[in-house]
Amino acid sequence: MKKGKTLDGLMRHIRSEHKIEINGSADKRKLISMGYFHGYKAYRFYQRIETKFDFEVFSQIVAISNFDNMMKTAFYPVVMKFESLIKNYLIEQSVKGSDPSYDYIYTTKLTDYRSLSPKSKSSSKQYTAAVNNRLRLKKSLDSAVAANYQKNEALIKHYIEQNAPIPLWAIFEVITLGTLGDFAKAFNSGDRIEILKNLNLYDAQYDPKGTFLYKLIYAIRPLRNSIAHNNVIFDCRFNKPEHIHHKNQIPQLLRKTTAKTIGLAGNTEFNTLFDYMALLIIILKESGETKRNLKHYVKTFSDAVDTLFEETKIVREIADDGKVKKSPLPVNIYDKIVGSGINNRIRALQTYISE
């Protein structure tokens, strides 16, 4: 049976097996802080374990770890505000002028499947998929209610024990962002379009049914969850094509809209964190967020990029025993992580905010 290694043993393993210099109490504290499995091993590769970085000193991994943590700090308030904003738009569009109860809205508003025909050759599969999505959504909503009642969640408990209809806003307090995406997908297209019009993001030519709304939620969901669970985000490894909702996690519609809105040539590919920040800033700006707050969000993002760039300027040092003491972060690794032309892209986003 293999026995677990001590921290000193892990450091010896890193030196002998990974050929990465790690020494002294300072490095030991940093290793235990980031964790060997959750941190060190995760920061050694880009997106897939097969694409390992060619590091020679532990400080280079620390630089990636620090950048990752700074980005989580930069994104957290933006993602949380986005989630609240989308919930509010969906609630307002659902309940205005009608019964606000979850059961009524499920029956009258989550009706996108009715725009398709089960008997048509061209849309029968889409109809079945839409009905399945709606039924899966109901199961998720009911499960959320049951789970929160069992946990004595005061809001849900109040309505159930008063034998009163549960309002939609109370349901939205206890569901995940993924379930919110399913809700937007089942929402009738007319209501989706109204929300997108309010956000100045409706494109009748390329998106006549307003699919941008739920595709947007599905795109942000894995980033939001990675931040919430303190998973690695620096290389966008959360953007996996096998997500169940669609084959391409970031559809062409979102990539085109993001680039066009902030004036970038071509499409954004969503293989760097900048693209996610740009998309979120667009949503917040079009919803009326203040320029001051938006500029603060982008500055926090830019500061993280600048801090990582400073790591490329470090002068390489060799100790008397021939071991590497310091080594700069290779510029090609920096470019791979932040994307080419990052400063110009940040300036384009700042200009968009100021308009």
Overview of the molecule:
- The protein has one domain (about 5-355).
- The chain has 16 helices and 2 strands.
- Helices cover about 60% and strands about 0% of the residues.
- The protein is mostly helical and about 350 residues long.
- It has a two-stranded antiparallel ribbon.
- Residues about 245-250 have low confidence and may be disordered.
Which features characterize this protein?
61% helix, 355 residues, two-stranded antiparallel sheet
Please render the helix and strand layout as text:
Elements: H1 7-17, H2 24-34, H3 36-43, H4 58-95, H5 102-108, H6 124-150, H7 154-161, H8 168-172, H9 177-186, H10 189-198, H11 212-228, H12 252-262, H13 273-286, H14 291-310, E1 317-318, E2 324-326, H15 331-338, H16 342-354
Antiparallel strand pairs: 1-2
Helix pairs in contact: 2-4, 4-10, 4-11, 4-13, 4-14, 6-9, 9-11, 12-13, 13-14, 13-16, 14-16
